[in-house]
Amino acid sequence: xxNNNSSYFDIEKFGDLLLQTGTLLMCSGASAARTRMITxxxxxxxxxxxxxFITHRALTITVSDPQSNNIYSRIKRxxxxxxxxxxxxxxxxxxxxxKESNWSLKQIENxxxxxxxxxxxxxxxxxxVVGLADASFCYFIDGTLPAMLVAFAATFAGLFVRQxxxxxxxxxxxxxxxxxxxxxxxxxxxxxxxxxGGFEMAFSSCVLxxxxxxxxINAFTDLxxxxxxxxxxxxxxxxxxxxxxxxxxxxxxxxxxx
Length: 258
What we know:
This protein has helices at 8-27, 32-45, 85-101, 105-116, 123-140, 145-167, 172-193, 200-205, 213-224, 228-256, and strands at residues 49-54, 58-64, 71-77.
């Protein structure tokens, strides 16, 4: 294993890598407790002490060497948080590999660069699979096959609108509103044209892909772990997202006068 005990330069590089690791975890949907656990695991492997202060918008790290008494501290602004469990699981596996295989700092740096550049799923595949998921939810609430097809089409369109709004750099909450409105507007057409066709199931299920499950789950786990500030912020973030979903549905209901 690379020795980090003697030079400040090594500690600086190690601190930057830990901070990059924590930032990647937080912006990929990991909880604050998981982020601390993984960074602590890596730091202990290198016989370093680490203190990590996590907020919703930034991370502050302090790395200290108990042998040389060198200290490195830095703050880094974290990008907007989303969900990418490929990165979370990849970093978790990396932390165990560091411990078991004595990785060098260069190996850690290369692995973080690889995870950052990991390609996302193809856009059409994502739209199709999410549409199928909401069509399945429609089936679970006794939706008919036509209703499932409408739920698929509405979800497909809603997610497409959200992606386009995000590409045009709209506020993230407005992206959710646009997506909710677009999806329910499409599903509502069939509800109006065929009032006895059971398309109310499609109308109800076509926005389920927008439900902020990860922010709300992380909010709960952060609160239970004592990360009160992060828990409250994530909980409020989830509630605002849910409000924007409801706002889009209400606007469609108002237009169609259900």
